[in-house]
Amino acid sequence: MIWTPSFFFSDNMKIRKIQKYFILGLFCAMNALTVNAQGWQMKKAPMMTPWSETIDVNNVLPEYPRPQMVRKEWMNLNGIWDLRKGVKGESYDPNFTFDQKILVPFPIESALSGIMEESDSQCYWYKRTLKIPETMKGRDILLHFDAVDWETIVYINGVKVGRHTGGYDPFYFDITSALKGKEEHELVVYTYDNTGGEGQPKGKQALNKWGCWYTPVSGIWQTVWLEPVDPVHIEALMIRPDVDNSCLKVRVNASLTTGVSVNINLLDKAGDKVAAIAGGKVGRILTLPIENPHLWSVDDPYLYDLDITIIKDGVQTDAVSSYCGMRKIEVKKVGETPRIFLNGEQIFQMGPLDQGWWPDGLYTAPSDEALLFDIKAMKSLGFNMIRKHIKVEPARWYMHCDREGILVWQDLPSPNLPSGHEDFAKKTFQEESVRIIEAFRNHPSIIQWIVFNEGWGQFDTERMTQIVQGVVGQTLVCCASGWNDADIGDIKDSHSYPDPSCPLDRNRAAVCGEYGGITLKVQGHVWPGGDFQYTTVETGGDFTVLFNRLADKIKDYYYYGLNAAVYTQLSDVEIERNGILTYDRRVLKPYSATGELKAKIEECINMPRSGVKVQTIISTSQEHKYKWRYTTSDDVPRRWFAKELDDRAWAQGEAAFGRSALWNTKDLISTPWNTSQIYMRRWFYLGTITPEMVENMRFKLYHDDDIHIYINGVWAASKKGSVSNYIPFDISYEARQTLKPNSWNLIAVEGKQGSGEQIMDLGISVFSTEDFNYKEIYDDLSDPEYSEVTIPGNPVDPIFTKVSRPVPAEPIGNSIIKGQFYHTADRSNVAWGDYDNDGYLEIAYSGQNVHIKKTSAQQVSVLYDYDGKEGFVRLESPFDVCYYACPVWLDYNNDGLMDLFVPGLKSMNYTNNLEDIAAFLYENKGKGQDGKYLFEEVNAANLAENKMGITPIYNTMDGGRSRQWVSVGDYDKDGYLDLVITGLDDYLDPDGKVDENGIPTVHHDRRVVYLYKNNKGKGFIRQETPLDGTKPFLGLSRGSVHFGDMDNDGWLDIVSSGYGPDEGNLHVYWNNGDGTFSENEQYLYGANDSSCSLCDLDADGYMDIVVTGYSRNKGSGAKSFYVYRNCGNRNFEMLNDLFCGFEGVDGATPSFGDVNHDGLPDILIGGHGEKHDITTWLYLNRGDFDFKACGAYYNTDQTWTFDRISHGNNHLVDYDNDGYLDAWNMGWAQESVCSRSCATQLWKNSSSTAGVAANEPPSAPSNLKSSYNKETGMLTFSWDAPADDVTPSVALQYNIYVKRAGSKEYFMTVPADLQTGFIKVGEISGQITATSYSMYIADEDAEYEWGVQAIDNGKRGGRFAFSSFNPLTSSVCENALLDLCVYTANGNIYYSVGDKTLLEIINTSGVQILRTIVNGNGAYSGLEKGVYLVSGIIGKLSRTFKLAL
Length: 1445
Hints:
This protein is mainly β.
């Protein structure tokens, strides 16, 4: 979103009294100006704000600079001054030569100053001339500097008038005595700054800029001005509201106290007098009583005006105008929780960290409008607070906050404690801190002062806090933001990134002083240099989603005791690019910033008055001491959380469990626990609850350290780390669905302990604005029912042997060892496929082979052919080099020849040249005259066009992404294979923006999931709105996409995973059968920087989802490896890595297959594990989703282990057709494997030596049937399941072959050899999961041949069974399957079953319409028009049909 800065301003923003004084001061300044712009030129920073374009050097920052003590006459001295480089400590010399021009008040290092110079020791002399206007003559003249960093010495007409040290506080000198005898006066200013070299406060300035330390600031950086005063004049004001006593307290300090009195008038906005004091004493606190004071607040920032005069001997000698706000800020307890109150009302504060930096002016905003812009921008987003971070602003910034109604936390600029200068640094910080507070404490918006930040230069915390408390007045004080806390002050503050946190204190209010830091780089608005980041997103939509998710955690922490949260940060600052605004303030980053994001911020701020009731379902130990069964042994059954487990041998004890010295656990812990683990189980009776209650149920957790929770045997939550109070936490969708009202339910907890305090306790509550009046039932179940718990098997360990020379003829010059496959440094995927129909799989891939000495020859595209005997032969490849590619074999035009689709990049160093993005489609033309197979690239994709309709696309170039980002299958059942692809579709800037070199800007933020319909072999048509027919699929990158029939209805669904909104994503899109898809309603934890894959791991006939990568399923982004078990009926159950026996991993692309001939698919995978980096694992399937790690380098008890390879691709393929799946491992290698950190290896499965039999193919299906529905044009095939030697019949998958008589073309769901049944691809997709299949046919007046084969878990295809049909000979509208027949007629669903069958009917929204046992024939009527899923279940056998009414 591009914001125009003037967007925020309107006439009603004008300041009432200051306005006329500003005009008078401007007049004086312009009359006094004696310099011009000649010789000065603005420098250009890497980026500039819009306000830099409108700077008038004759009218720089012309606004009145001291809004809380305004005099009528003043003169602005900002503008162009002379400048010379000085030497530290040198004396003034009237003969100095000034050879530069500088625009004051911009710091020397800034572009707006016109100097933009940096050095370790910044010493400069400034000079200008001035004339005192006639109206000011005869009075004392005060020369003001609002801020100079760091040392200042001022000379008037060669006379030294004063010296000041300190970079943040305003100061002035009386220059009257030096002005005598001249009309034109010379003003010379010496400045010196070593950026905290001796411990001076310097905030975020650094000589060595890096990370969150920025360009230093030196010299004059705030307005310089002068004013005339009487010798008896007002020097300072102290204004303190006293809301409790309905009065305002004011102290007026004057240059003389004897014989001087003060008059004060307090006025309302209408100018009417509210209160007054006449003849008060100066230097004393005076009280103005206010009847029914109008309080200042965020929503109503009401300000009173003050007119103050002092009288000497009956004559008024000075008059100033000021303003004030009546407000009270305090910490009070609500129950036992300290809360922050404003004017007696509890508040929650949320705002940005504001460092006050500008790319062109650094510490100095380019204009007053710019200052106001930031404040109004944040207020418009819903924030009610700003933390001004270790920098002090001009007084006008605080005035704007006062008037706009924004709360301010003001940091004291951090000191530095260099060795040898500690005493000086401490004294300097203390003195300057007091001066800063005294200068700005009257602003009602400042409600908190922060003494130290994150321990930087921290010392004598208690003493310094007491000093601050003694000066600030009616304001809160935080002793230390972040850490190094001391038990003093009003606030306890913690920092954490990116997730928020909440400290805990008995008496002080808890706040999160920093969190977030979401980095989003906006092209064209990025400061050059490195990166400093906590977490990164790619789009404005991502920003909003992640921001809002973090905000939801803030809402949770509110219940914990949180009172405020500070998001880092308002704008980017140099290489820290985590701002809500870009550094130049030209782009507001979040999507729907004033919509979705603002609504979420307002939800947080409104928490104290949200009306949400926390209604207990199961009490925590704070309210009731429940008894649990528990054990601290690590020898527990694998399904220790199962309902059927007999836990009577476990001990009984009351919660909470643990050991802790924290004050708030004193009365909580009832049962000691001091081991590294604990397992807890408890049956609870759940009374009458509604679906709305279930929807709003959440845990209340107190855990230290990790906790894993199950409800009724189903995973409910996991959270790593620890908390120090109860916090709400989500219950998984699938666990909530298991809750049974008016019944006993089981909750089971696993606790893991690292070190320090430990505690485990939980409850369940409903968080809702509705009052459900639920009565908790405290009963214990005395005699649960127990049964046997499933015990996994013990599979035979396979044996793999590395093939030492898989390519015998390959010379050593192309690898580290003779006879090796080419390595590639870009870690692309490979495609295994039989393109030449010789019955063996060939290998195609490309990339950079860094082992080839000649750099120009390192770009390689390779094609390997297995010779059937000795090994592989590298052929001359007909394919282009494509980096980071995902090649896929498919027969796109049904000619029986395998074509190759290759998306990726033509350049390994791609940045912004869109011509480098590729989408190659190589059509197999068959054998040429020389006997070699010919391929023609037919897509010819470029920026202008693509002949076959496939847009060039790539996935991310880093090593952590998936290699499975293209999938093949016939989703629309038209007899042609379609494509689904996920990745990045880069594009030129739509507004034609170019970079500094004139090169067009290219954006890399368009993540896509593209669905391509095959246009009958003539090309592909991208489906623009496949989701519900109205919108595209959610775009993802760094992930995977797959076709798969997830609900066994015969239609291919789509599963996609990867990086997107909220980081890790996992989406299931259900095929509606009309060319559109619907989103799965169940929330699924996704992952990024890895992949999802599909496999029927438990051999029940349903495809499960395997997920690897960084996921939040453990409560925070962590390496994960988990399974979503497909439970049928479009429901999934998550099984985490602990249960499955996996090690969390990223950079992994798994491959599945039965390697040890036990009928269950095993998993080959390589990646960076949580404990072991660069590792290749073979996980052996023991049944019940229990896997045994095998082959990893650390499995030293094995006779063999894989070499350490990860972040590439792994494939289980039977390359030599011996009935054993072999292992292909390719990717990033540990240095002991390859000196260039890359490797390509083939490992032969030699398990026959361990007694493992070879895999035999399944037999052919039988009882082939077909029927045709003339109305829909769909043909339905059915068959009986064959037998296999080890794969269960229900787990067999199928491949259909259809050919019209007389045609050379034929369709297969999976490429295979019709004679032998050989599967012609290494990785199978688009297969059929049931024993029936329907598809459209183009010509009903024709004879057809069709066939079907079974595929087992060893990826072996059985022989085809064949049949024929003529559509016109059949018109029965039915789906026949074994003994089950389901069909539609007259608006009813009819069924016929041969045995007792469980019949289920659900609609496409997942709502169950019918679930009953049927036998024989029957019908179900009364259904609305629509699409329904009808499932028949007999024992473990189930079949699902999709029917339309």
